Amino acid sequence: GATVCRRHAPGCAACPFSSDCSAYKQGLQAQIPLTKKQKPLPIKRTQMLLLYNQRREVLLLKRPPVGIWPNLWSLPECDPEQNPAQWCQHHLGLRTQHWHDWQAFQHQFSHFKLLVQPRVAFIEETAARVMDDQDSKWVYKQTGKKLAIAAPINRLLNAFSSWSEENLSNV
Known about the structure:
Number of helices: 3
Helix content: 10-25%
Strand content: 25-35%
Largest sheet: 5 strands, mixed
Radius of gyration: 25 Å
Order of helices and strands: HEEEEHEEEEH
Shape: elongated
């Protein structure tokens, strides 16, 4: 029965149980079984920071081994309530300027939706504390393709490459 009894394409003529089937007898094959109503997924919010230096390199940080995108390279993130310039100064030791907000987008995971607000900023100086090492890297355009990066981060890096060509001709 289960191989021929499908809600969207019931094969009642081939079903060995059609004579005993209450859905078939009542003409309700298209409505039974009922679909479960899915609970709305919770929404989490974050700011993803595209921090670039004078060479148009963008800072990537290695994600922790647990949580979303474990051990992948990603953009720095801060809570939506936090001031990103202050967060950068406090957590990365970097001074920023020329902030630009890009259009927010949503990325869906199996158990929640992530609402991302991309924010772009120029790094005034490269602090010795944030250098290429095992947990942080400065990447230029396509060099990020050699790293393990989640698809939404890769799209943001590609968008930055185009944006920087249009907007940073003097840098």
